[in-house]
Every structure is written in C-alpha cells, then in structure tokens.
Amino acid sequence: MAKGYRTSQVSGWWRGIRARFLLRTLCGDLGDELGCGIRRRRTVLGVTDTVLRALSDAFGLGEVRDRRFLAHGLMNRNWRLVTTTGVYALKEITDVPLPKARRNLAVLVDLAREGIPVPVPLVDPSGDLVVEVGGHGYCVLPWVKGEHLQGTDLPLDQVRDLGALLGRLHEGLRRHGPGPVPEQAPVAKVRDVAEADRAAAALTSRLPNDLVSDFDKAAAEVLHGRRGLLARYADARPDGEAPAGPYGWTHGDFQYRNLLRRYGRVVAVLDWDRLGVRPYGEEVARTAQVQFGVGGAFDLDRVAAFCSGYRSVIGLSEGDLADAVKRLWWKRLTDFWQLEFYLDRQDPTFGEMFLTDEVLLNWWTDRADEVQAAYAAS
After folding, report:
1. Stated pTM of the model
2. CB 252 within 8 A of CB 172
3. Residues 211-269 pLDDT 10s
4. Alpha-carbon Rg for the chain in angstroms
5. Element (H, E) at 78
6. Which residues are paired to 82 by β-bridges?
7. What share of the chain is helix, strand, coil (3-state, %, to 5)?
8. Three-state DSSP state, 134
9. How far from each other are the two terminal CA atoms of the chain, in whole angstroms?
10. Residue 337 contacts by C-beta under 8 Å, 6 or more apart in sequence?
11. 123 near 131, Cβ under 8 Å?
C-alpha cells in the first residue's frame, strides 16, 4: 500500500455532518423533501398513445392494456407494458447513442444461449433491435419477475454465487463481446490533486452564498472536508494510468439496481448501456463497493465472499485487485460527479448520493488496510 494511504481518525467535521444530516436524509424531513422531489419530477413523464401504437406494430406487441412508468431508473425512461401478447419492459434510450444501444443489445442473444440470465430483446420485422419513433429510440424486452435486493440483504452463499456469476459473465463476453478486445490494455485517467481541488472550489462557488437549505450547508462542509483529505493524501496517488491485471468486455454497471432476483438467484442482468472494455479488477472493485458499501461502511465479510466467488471462476491475483481497489478509492476521492449531476440537472437523487457516498469514502479511508484484505479473499 502506497505511503499516505493509511488509516487515520475520521475528522470532527464529518462526524457532525453524519450525525446532523445523514439520518435526516434517510429518515426525516429532508428525506421527505428529496423523495417528493423525485416523485414530482418523474410522474409527469409519459409515452403517448401514438408512440405506443407505432411500437406495438413494430415489435408485434398486440393491444396495450396497461402501461406503468418505472420511476426508479436514473438515466433512461422505462415502462412496464401489459398487452394482449404478454408483459414487456419498454425503454426509451436516452443515455447512449442508438448505434451503441443496438450493438449492446445484440450481445444478449448469444449470452442467453449460454445460460447467462439476460433478457432477449425483441426485434422488428427487419431484425432491428431499436425502433425510432418521433426522433427517439426504443427497445422492448420481455418482462422478468423479480426484485432488486441490496448486497447486504443477501446471505453469504448467495453473495459468493453473485461473484461467480460476474466471472461467468466476463467469460461469456470473452466469446460474445461486440468486437475484438484491443491488444493494448485500456488506460484510466488518474486525476491529480490540484485538478480535483480546483473542481471542489468551483463546485463550492456554485452553491448559494447564503446556504439556506440543509443540503447546501452539508454540501459546503463536505467540499471543505474533501479538500482537506486531498491535501492529506496527495502522495497516495496511484502510479501511472495503466491498471494492473487482465481486461476485456465488461457489463459496466453490475449492481443491485440492474439485477433481478427470485428464489435466491439472479434471474436477469439488466441495463447494458455501459458495456465496454475495462480491466476485470475495475468491475469487481466497483461492484463490491456499490453492493456492499451500504450505510456508510463496507460489509467486509460480503466483500470477501463476493471476491472469492469471482476468483473461483477468473484468476485475478491479489496484486491486480489491490491495484483496482486503490484506483477506485482514488477516483472516489478526486471525483464529484454526483454533485455535478445534482447542480446541472436539479435532480435530488444525485444530491443524496453525493452525501451518503461521502460517509463511505471517509470510513474507507480510515480503514484502507481492512478493505484491501477483504478484497484479497480467495
């Protein structure tokens, strides 16, 4: 572990934010304010009868008997459709270019043949997986019954199985990825401290001068504290922009919001918009963080079980994983994308993510060696 990336006391300013703000965000009046903001923003979105008729004709759905907008999606717009021929998931593609969406959806057909739990998209009479209506692109997939469960809600045997599933997914993508894997390993920008500090200062200047709301006050304190962390851990920057270990096609967002479970197993891996070539360690590290970094702390037993399951399928070395985990920690330390999304889009979902993820970042920084040991489990 590099010099400077060691355990330390969580600073008093953060304990104050955690005590005053986080519980209110999750349980109290500000949480209600955020939740109401989400509901108001998303219930106004719809899909017109004209668009539905065109899509029904193109995909052979039959008469649409019921439609329900799915408000939990963060990027694309999704609906559940009940028709005379079945139940379907309709997605309006807004987060990736349509040619890329077509490329990614085509992969699912081959993965499904190998027994990977993915829904197979419908095609129009010409074989197209995406139909364009009114300047927008849409795809349709069969509806899969299941529930989204956070990783900390899973027993350890299911956590290990989840890691093994990600390994099998990577193996399947080796054979059925949308193109050849580049001979040269992908590189990942490692943001320097000065650039990150400037970004924090710029975001601080975008907050209201009077800091009226609880969120504005908390965000200002977080940014101030983050600049302190950046100064303290400046010499812990990862070496170079070439991550260690094997690489290939990866899902890109393998986490509970994109996994449907039923009867103790994953029945569908959803949302393939971020399919791309990455280091395998990067996806393993990120998935474990999102799945098991809940409530401001890592569930280290589940991190260990997940990584053990993955490494039972793909031989990722301890050194490769350690490099990936450190790079992910540094990325979280130097990045502010949730707050940027909140300010750019005025979407309270991202504001809540920014504040809750800050709790985990401080916990992680304070216990870096313990986290690394959990990821190294085999």
Report:
1. 0.87
2. no
3. 889 999 999 999 999 999 999 999 999 999 999 999 999 999 999 999 999 999 999 99
4. 22
5. strand 77-83
6. 66, 87
7. 55, 15, 35
8. coil
9. 19
10. none
11. no
